[in-house]
Each structure stands twice: as structure tokens, then as C-alpha cells.
Design goal:
It contains four helices and twelve strands; from the N terminus they run E-E-E-E-E-E-H-E-E-E-E-E-H-H-E-H. The strands form two sheets. Strands 1, 3, 5, 7, 8 and 10 form a six-stranded parallel sheet that branches. A six-stranded mixed sheet has the order 2-4-6-9-12-11. Helix content is 23%, strand content 37%. The protein is an alpha/beta fold.
Amino acid sequence: MQITNVNLIDCSESDCYIEGAALTDVTVDGLLVKDAKPLKLAGCVLNRVTLRGDLGQIMIRPRLHLAYRHLQPVYDVANSAAYEQVDWALDISGARGSAVSVHGIPSRLIRRDPETQAVMTLGQALEGRWREVDLTGTPFGVHTKIILETGVEDMVLAADYSSANFAHQVEKLAELRKAGCVLPD
């Protein structure tokens, strides 16, 4: 399935799951997520997709649903080849609101806000220096465990604008950056 040239402004969704699609030139500017169920994109390939404004929780994952897991190798090869052809895949630099959780897209193809979003590589996760930073009150410990469990090359760690401790999360990103636990910007 291809989804192309779509602009969604101040929309809402409830329990939406997009799987195995190619999204090109898509902008979502404001998204209300109903029923505390995140918008999920699984096994999709993105090309010039922009998420900005106030957003509910969005999860972008490389893995297909268990029922389609037998097709995963085909999607992995196709998506990897597609990412070699794009200038940029995803722009989350203007995303505000709940957590936008992204893995499976090479970080070099993600436009982000360096103050509130950082990249941790698998090598940095394996080094373990992140354990020296108290990550209590942040999602970054969970994100690091995802990197270690899945073996993804890298992952964007994003402070949650909707959290009461957003400023604390931004401070922890700065500490991770200073300790060499995430890529410098």
C-alpha cells in the first residue's frame, strides 16, 4: 500500500495501525490520540514524512505484526533499499506533545530538535555508560533496553512534551550527551 501527498491537520485517531505501507510526502500537524492507544506504524517505509504540532503517542517500529512476521525478511530488505534512495525519511523537529517513539529508521534520515531529541547508537548502548546517568523519570532507560534487545543500529530518544517532568528529561538528555552516551549534535 502506498500513501502519498497527504496533509492531516488537527485530526484524531483511535487504535489506528498502519502496517507495511510506503508513506511519501505525508504531514501530520496535530493529532489527538483517543483511548490512550498510540498510532502505530509497523514495517512501514517513510519518505519525507513530517510529524509536528501537538501529537498524541506515536510508535514507529520496523517489525510487522506477529501474524505477518513470516514476511519480515522481505520487508527488511525492501525498506533498507528504499532508505538508500531517500534524502530524509522523517522530520520530528517540530513534534510536541506525547512521546514519539521511533526505531527502525536510520537516524541519519531523521530531522530532529537537538535540544529535546538525541540519537543513541547500539555501540553506545552496549558500552553501558548510560547506566551512570540516573534516568529515573524518563523513558530513556526503556529506549536503551529496546536498542539492546532488538539490536537496532540506533534510536532517537525524545523528551515527552506532555510530561510534567519534560524539563527534567531535557536535562537528562544533556547529561547523556555530555557523558558520550548519545551522539553529539
